[in-house]
Design brief:
two-stranded antiparallel sheet
Length: 196
Amino acid sequence: MIKNTVVDVFRPDEKISAILYDAIVVICGSLILGLSAQVKVYLPISPVPITGQTFAVLMLAALLGSRRGVMAMIVYLIEGALGLPVFAGGIGPATLIGPTGGYLAGFVPAAYVVGKLAEMGWDRRIATTIAAMVIGNGVLYAFGVCWLAIMTNIRTALTVGLYPFIVGDILKVILAAAVLPAGWKLLNCLKTKDTQ
């Protein structure tokens, strides 16, 4: 199997083991995303909290790839819809149609896009990692801001759902650009040592 993502590097070749591995990775990804939602800061001007979720979505997508990344997001949304306390903006299915519902819906396509880009090697260099993370953030904001605009209007949606988060997202993109390519270099060094 081609090792396109970090998770693929450790994936066993035997079919049953590989299926079990994928299931564990997807469940762990959903739990990590749920934990990232618990660190939240509400701004007085916005119903959308600052969380670690956008960073977790994009990093998980890069690490897991498109298929497993999407599945982790879907499992996370199901966990939240079933009432597990994994959403930042509330508990249960009502959260999916609340102010943060658009962002939650955006997790799935953002994970797919960033996962696909990672499978194409975009997470191995700083410039392309930055591009992948910016594109992923764009997908998240497209869903989140559009949903807020439907609930309010475009000016309000931009004011409460985009502008307050730009600086934080720039920092998250920089962090991802530092971590992902460095992680690949470390994996390649370890692989080289193992083959010597």
